[in-house]
Every structure is written in C-alpha cells, then in structure tokens.
Predict the 3D structure of the following.
Amino acid sequence: MSRVAEFTTLWRMLRGLPDAGSHAARLEAFYRPQAEHYDAFRERLLAGRPRMLRALALRAGQRVVELGAGTGRNAEYIADVVPGLQSLTLVDLCPALLEQARRRAARWPNCRVVEADAAGYRDRNIDRVYLSYALTMMPDWRGVLDNALAMLAPDGLLGVVDFYVSEARPPRGYVTHGVWTRRFWPWWFAHDGVHLHGQVLRRLHERLDLEFLHEGRAPLPWLPGLTVPYFIFIGRPRR
Ligand SMILES: C[S@@+](CC[C@H](N)C(=O)[O-])C[C@H]1O[C@@H](n2cnc3c(N)ncnc32)[C@H](O)[C@@H]1O
C-alpha cells in the first residue's frame, strides 16, 4: 500500500462515519473513498480473522454465509475450501465494498454477493454463518444475531470475531478489562460507527453452546504501544 493511499484511508477514518442519512448511505459515504485500499489497510487492523475461519471447521458441501462481508477479503483466507463448498454467500449493505467483493468472487461460480441488511437477509439450513468485525458496526446487532441463528441448520455453527471491551462483571471465566480499557476503546472507535461493548459476548454466551473462545489483544497501526481487545467466538445454537 502506498504512503498516499495509507494517508487517504487514515484521513477518511479520522473524519469518521457521517452523522446524517440512512445507515446504508452513511456506510457508502464512509467507505466509497477508501474501498480500493480497504483490504491493505485493514490487513493490519483486523486481527484473528484466519483463526476464526479455521475454528469454523469449513468442509466441502457446506452452505456458508458471511454477514457484513465487505470486500469479501475473508473468502481469500479460505480460498482452498471455497471451490468445494455448496455455496458461499457474501452479504453487505455497502455498494462500494460490494463492487470489490463481486470482482473477487467472479472466480468462484458457487459464490454469491448480495446487497442486503444483515438483519433482513433471509436464508435457511445454512451450515456456517460468520461475522468478522461487522456486528460492532450494525445498529441492530441483536436482530442480526437472531437472524443468523434462525438461518442455521440444527447442527450449524456461528462464528464471530470482533473488537470488544468486557463488561465490568463479565460471565465467570471470561476476561475482565480495566476501567481505562473499558472507557478508551469505545470512545476511540465510536467516531467510525464501531461500537465496542461487552454485551455481544454475553448475548453469544446466552444463546449458544460454546465450541471455541479466544479473548486476545492486538496492536493497531498508528497507535504504537496500545493494544485493543478482540474476541473469537464459535458456538452452536442452543435449541
Ligand atoms: C469493518 S467492515 C468488515 C468487513 C469484513 N467482514 C472484513 O472482515 O473485512 C464492517 C462491514 O459491515 C458492513 N455493515 C454494517 N452494517 C451492516 C448491515 N446492517 N448489514 C450488512 N452489512 C453491514 C459494512 O458495510 C462493512 O462492510
């Protein structure tokens, strides 16, 4: 990524998500100017994506959906598995990022790119649904989670990787973050329409039987010495 592209992307992120308009219009205004460089910039920002995808145990013949798929970058991490899947559907609400996803998906006849709100997209009998750094950007994240669970086949798995901060008193066995972490990171990310809190992990914990959990911290470009908390959660819907 060139220095100029990096500064342009950083500038858009510093300007933040616009306040006015529908959610879709705000996403488009935010991402359109950075869509071309999105992948290169986010490569160093979004930790744990390959690990979440490995933990999902993707297999030939499965039907797989990514909600909030953006440019479809995650499909590259599983490029060896994609041709064997029955289908891979990439859902997102932002046309600028979906243009990149369509270009990328053209080489896989079983990969579909759909413009839709993750809370409203309907499908059924899906083996794997995953969200990568997307739930924190979705205002109706509870509705999106309900929708993801409703889509899953009885033995399906849901995978989520995202930034977060813990609740002051998280469920037993989960990481507790100090007050500075719980205040600083939500403030830092809110500007870009990314809302960090502990409720997502609690909700996942309540609605799914845990298969795999990792709570880690990752460095961020341009913020030397600081690390932001992220989690990987894989679970089976509780029926
Ligand atoms: C930080 S990006 C992550 C993209 C991709 N999952 C990745 O790992 O590179 C968040 C994505 O969520 C999408 N998004 C936000 N709200 C959405 C919604 N309600 N329905 C569908 N996609 C949404 C954005 O357009 C954006 O592509």
